[in-house]
Specification:
Number of helices: 5
CATH topology of the largest domain: Immunoglobulin-like
Radius of gyration: 23 Å
Largest sheet: 5 strands, mixed
CATH architecture of the largest domain: Sandwich
Number of domains: 2
Helix content: 10-25%
Strand order of the largest sheet: 1-9-3-6-5
CATH class of the largest domain: Mainly Beta
Number of strands: 19
Strand content: 35-45%
Shape: globular
């Protein structure tokens, strides 16, 4: 009987902890800041992004002692209140102090080399409701790339291109922005065609397409070699896919670059970076 009571008490405590955790978590998945020390796990060679509501006032921040180079933090130039942490060492612990709305919060940064690594962490204040971003885009959580169905998304995009009725039926969920920027590369023209925004998922898909204009020469251009920029600020897609990286004479390749969780507006100054051309590589030898 005593053991049964102990087990019941343990179960009760576990349920209570779950309820407390649920209560102190934002519906969009953000951690609510309080006086508790926040732990963030980093890894050398990987950038970890911290996000806060765009209308919070972040007054200042500091990492470790003055002159410390254990971790560098860079503020995004395109996404308000978004910061990326870059460890400069392979292991260690250091404090990050941030003054938000006049109050200082402490984060303990751990540089590790295991599965605890945080790629993105979102924080908010208790009871805070973001005012400047009230659309569905602002409420969409950051998704794990494994949870993004890229194949189905591409099918939707391509069906919208050829079926106006289907396109119109999704007009409240999907927005299109024509870019039409052309870039010369090894005698071919690479075109950044458009950006398609899936509003509910805070996801923008860029399409890039080109045709091999040569009759006797194949080219290799992998989708990972494309660089995406918004107003000269590089943005890293979470998923990239293409028809084929090796494009033979007369063949066309189309690539899709998925950008998710950045709270970006669709109508931006999108641009594309390309790898060196053959002539540029030869000139380096």
């Amino acid at each position: 009987m005593k053991k049964l009571l102990q087990n019941s008490l343990l179960l009760y405590l576990l349920l209570a902890q779950c309820l407390i955790f649920a209560k102190e978590s934002d519906p969009a998945g953000a951690t609510i800041l309080d006086d508790t020390l926040q732990h963030i796990y980093l890894a050398f060679g990987i950038g970890t992004t911290l996000r806060f509501p765009t209308d919070l006032e972040i007054n200042e921040w500091s990492i470790g002692n003055p002159g410390s180079e254990v971790v560098k933090m860079v503020a995004s130039q395109t996404v308000p209140n978004s910061f990326t942490l870059y460890p400069q060492e392979e292991s260690g612990d250091v404090n990050l102090n941030m003054t938000i709305n006049g109050k200082t919060y402490v984060f303990l940064l751990h540089i590790v080399n295991d599965s605890r690594v945080n790629y993105t962490k979102s924080f908010t204040l208790k009871g805070w409701q973001e005012k400047k971003l009230s659309s569905k885009v602002s409420r969409a959580p950051v998704l794990n790339p494994r949870d993004i169905d890229s194949s189905s998304t591409i099918k939707i995009i391509e069906k919208c291109r050829i079926d106006p009725v289907y396109h119109q039926s999704l007009s409240k969920k999907i927005k299109w922005f024509n870019i039409g920027k052309a870039y010369p590369w090894n005698g071919n023209i690479i075109t950044l065609y458009d950006a398609i925004q899936f509003i509910d998922e805070d996801m923008i898909v860029l399409t890039v397409s080109w045709k091999n204009q040569f009759n006797n020469k194949a080219f290799y251009l992998h989708v990972k070699q494309y660089e995406v920029y918004v107003a000269n600020q590089r943005i890293y897609p979470v998923i990239t896919t293409q028809i084929t990286p090796r494009v033979f004479p007369g063949q066309r390749d189309t690539a899709y670059l998925f950008i998710q969780g950045h709270k970006l507006k669709l109508e931006q100054d999108w641009s594309l970076g390309l790898p060196l051309e053959e002539s540029e590589i030869l000139s380096l030898k």
